[in-house]
Design a protein that fits this description.
153 residues, alpha+beta, OB fold (Dihydrolipoamide Acetyltransferase, E2P), 2 domains, five-stranded mixed β-sheet, 4 helices, 5 strands, 44% helix, NfeD-like_C, transmembrane, NfeD family protein
């Protein structure tokens, strides 16, 4: 027991290592926060703090990491780009109209390497041939498009 009181920092570091290895199995980001608290206890022990102070520092650091750091890390790990699949991947792409397009006379466009029936998103709009359009919505097998404004010299 005399060795433990003289080398409490080593015991805290051993506990931190065990918690770190256990985190590799659980991947919950809880045990690693407790391991950081154990490192805080090791620093306090190395500085010559009493055992009660070491436990308090380890507990405060652990609770602080669990309350402040873990939620942010989990949020970042679980968030990512929104995955779009199927026809939804065509939204935002541009195409050139080979002929006039209106709500009463739909045309065809080639977008994403595929031929699509196209109607104007605004049903009162007539899109002239040769216009560059952007796909705003896909409903069934119809792409609803809107012309892109161009600056003419």
């Amino acid at each position: 027991m005399d060795w433990l009181s003289d080398n409490a920092w080593a015991a805290w570091l051993g506990l931190a290592a065990v918690l770190g290895l256990a985190e590799l199995v659980s991947l919950d980001l809880v045990l690693i926060m407790l391991a950081v608290g154990a490192v805080g206890g090791a620093v306090t022990a190395a500085a010559g703090g009493a055992v009660v102070l070491q436990v308090i520092v380890a507990a405060v650091v652990s609770v602080g990491m669990l309350a402040m750091v873990r939620p942010n890390v989990v949020r970042r790990l679980h968030s990512g780009p929104e995955l779009r699949v199927g026809p939804q991947t065509l939204i935002g792409l541009q195409a050139v109209t080979p002929g006039d397009i209106s709500a009463l006379a739909p045309g065809r466009i080639k977008v994403g390497g595929e031929d699509w029936l196209a109607k104007p998103y605004d049903e009162h709009l007539i899109i002239p041939a040769g216009s560059t359009v952007e796909v705003l919505e896909i409903r069934g097998a119809t792409a609803y498009v809107h012309p892109i404004a161009t600056l003419e010299p």
